[in-house]
Design a protein that fits this description.
The complex is a heterodimer of chains A (112) and B (117). Helix content of chain A is 0%, strand content 52%. In chain A, strands 2, 6, 7, 8, 11, 12 and 13 form a 7-stranded mixed sheet that branches. In chain A, strands 1-3-10-9 form a 4-stranded antiparallel sheet, with no helix packed on it. A two-stranded antiparallel ribbon of chain A has the order 4-5. The radius of gyration of chain A is 13 Å and the shape is globular. Chain B is mainly beta and 117 residues long. Chain B is 0% helix and 49% strand. Chain B contains no helices and 10 strands. A 6-stranded mixed sheet of chain B has the order 2-10-9-4-5-6, with no helix packed on it. A 4-stranded antiparallel sheet of chain B has the order 1-3-8-7, with no helix packed on it. In chain B, β5 and β6 form a beta hairpin. The chains are: A mainly beta (112), B mainly beta (117). At the A-B interface, β7 and β12 of A face β5 of B.
């Protein structure tokens, strides 16, 4: 199985600040045949189901605010929130779908 | 509108089995793989497996082989997850999610399973 490691495990920022969080895979999730990275990001707010934010590592799901940006390739990926809002309080998970399915351990975002 | 309505919370005894349901509306489950995901309290997400409801084929994460059994009833547009020989390690929220695409745009609301004597 491909292992997914997220860092940091938690962070606290003030509203309006920029946030970056990392996701690293134990093997590349870049599929050579189509040059696509098989990686998604989800947001899980307290007491809710996960919500899809990003797929193909950088394609924003319809309706997701453009302050959320996914980047990276191969084994190293980043989710950036350009200007954090109070409503962004959540745990963020990366998810590889190249080989079976695995999720990262999550990054918990707290608002100061 | 796509919806996945999961069954209610369960309190079960150690060693017992439990069967959870996920009723779909707004689409035909025959057209999509249906996945199940586990989330232990204050923990991350673990993929359990999927079913192709059209033919009943299933794939499981090795960790859940022998623990989980996924089935589907196309006549009622419902997917099921059965968990056997329950222990405290199985206490978790279980989510169903629609596949088809490789990622999950649609999730159920989750079912809490508590294993306790």
């Amino acid at each position: 199985n491909i292992m997914m490691t997220q860092s940091p495990s938690s962070l606290a920022v003030s509203a309006g600040e920029k946030v970056t969080m990392s996701c690293k895979s134990s093997q590349s999730v870049l599929y050579s045949s189509n040059q696509k990275n098989y990686l998604a990001w989800y947001q899980q707010k307290p007491g809710q189901s996960p919500k899809l934010l990003i797929y193909w590592a950088s394609t924003r799901e319809s309706g997701v605010p453009d302050r959320f940006t996914g980047s990276g390739s191969g084994t190293d990926f980043t989710l950036t929130i350009s200007s954090v809002q109070a409503e962004d309080l959540a745990v963020y998970y990366c998810h590889q779908y190249l080989s079976s399915r695995t999720f990262g351990g999550g990054t918990k975002l707290e608002i100061k | 509108e796509v919806q996945l309505q999961q069954s209610g919370a369960e309190l079960v005894r150690p060693g017992a089995l439990v069967k959870l349901s996920c009723k779909a509306s707004g689409f035909n489950i025959k057209d999509y793989y249906m996945h199940w995901v586990k989330q232990r309290p204050e923990q991350g997400l673990e993929w359990i497996g999927w079913i192709d409801p059209e033919n009943g084929n299933t794939i499981y994460d090795p960790k859940f082989q022998g623990k989980a059994s996924i089935t589907a009833d196309t006549s009622s547009n419902t997917a099921y997850l059965q968990l056997s020989s329950l222990t405290s390690e199985d206490t978790a929220v279980y989510y169903c999610a629609r596949g088809g695409l490789l990622w999950y745009p649609y999730w159920g609301q989750g079912t809490l399973v508590t294993v306790s004597a």
